[in-house]
User: Fold Signal recognition particle receptor FtsY from Catellatospora methionotrophica.
Amino acid sequence: MKDALVPVLVVIGLLLLAGLTLFLVRRPRRGALPPTEQPRPGIERGEQVPPSVITAPAPEKAPERVTPTKPAVPAPAPPAAGETAPPVEAPPAPAAPEIEQPEPTAGRLVRLRARLSRSQNVFGKGLLGLLSRDHLDDDAWDEVEESLISADVGVQATTEIVAKLRERTRVLGTRTSSDLRTLLTEELTEALDPKLDRSLHTGVVDGRPSVILVVGVNGAGKTTSCGKIARVLVADGHTVVLGAADTFRAAAAEQLATWGSRVGAQVVRGPEGGDPAAVAFDAVKKGIEAGVDTVLIDTAGRLQNKVGLMDELGKIKRVVEKHGPVSETLLVLDATAGQNGLSQARVFTEVADVTGVVLTKLDGTAKGGIVIAVQRALGIPVKLVGLGEGPDDLAPFDPQQFVAALLGDE
Ligand SMILES: Nc1nc2c(ncn2[C@@H]2O[C@H](COP(=O)(O)OP(=O)(O)OP(=O)(O)O)[C@@H](O)[C@H]2O)c(=O)[nH]1
Assistant:
């Protein structure tokens, strides 16, 4: 009887052991989470997916007692009920852009005078060298003339300048280098018509902000100049709203938004390809609401043909003038474009009432005389000059400072 009980007890013992093992293996550990169902391709969309395409769920953290063949991937899991969540580190909030306060613009041209080094070679070294020759015969004067024309001064202005220089050097007789510098300074300054009004028409007029339209051919540096003019205005104590009415080029609005954010100027933009006049209108509206003193509007002004340009700029002007008159239209010109730039410029002056010129890229040319040619050809003052790609490389134009910079140091 006793012998008969032994196998029965062994069987019962084995069954108990097996049961206990099963219980321990299947029991979830305290704190462990149920495995997260991984999305399987096709299944969520109710498609029939061949078994080979169904990806296996990602390996869950296995119970410690089960030795995994591969190291388990520790998945970040929310804590189980009752557990305190570890402090979550919030991503750092994007730092508010630092508002820059550019230096007032007085003396910028003097600070940037070295940027005219290429033109200085022609005017300072070249012309002064020619004029200091002992005998100024016809050949020497021809050379003076050629130098001025090659510096883009223009034929008419060159003829006048040379005629005056000839007369004055003859009267002067013997010439010291300082006499010659004075002579040349006076004649070049005179050719730049120092009496012209070069101030920007800014500030509140009849309770509304002034409106400045910025026009010009693509690539002349129009959008960049708009951004720099905003800085010039802020630097000199004005408050500005920018209108990105160049809806033709998406990047232009983006560019302007960046310029604006750096000096705390709001930028009004529209959808790409949208109506530029609508953006211009909204910009002025925003300027009135925000109580700023100047609204600066960048336009696309693409020069496909004169009629198209006239239509676009005309519409912008008409729509903006529902708020009040446009105070100023600035034409942006590339100094390196020479005579070709001048004929493009004429088209703009014919379709828009241009009141001032912004001459960019003077740092990139030896032909600083273009300033004289532009003013003469268009009859419009150069108000600002671009002397580099830096944000504050745009200077109010001053004929005396400019000529002094052209002639270089004594
Ligand atoms: N060296 C130099 N580069 C300048 C100056 N002004 C503008 N630029 C550069 O000229 C290039 C063209 O400038 P943009 O402002 O994009 O020209 P844009 O006329 O607005 O062109 P669109 O928006 O296509 O009409 C940029 O690389 C500017 O940095 C300047 O005074 N000197």
Q: What stands out?
A: The pocket of guanosine-5'-triphosphate is lined by residues 218-224, 246, 249, 252, 360-361, 363-364, 386-389, 393 (CB under 6 Å).
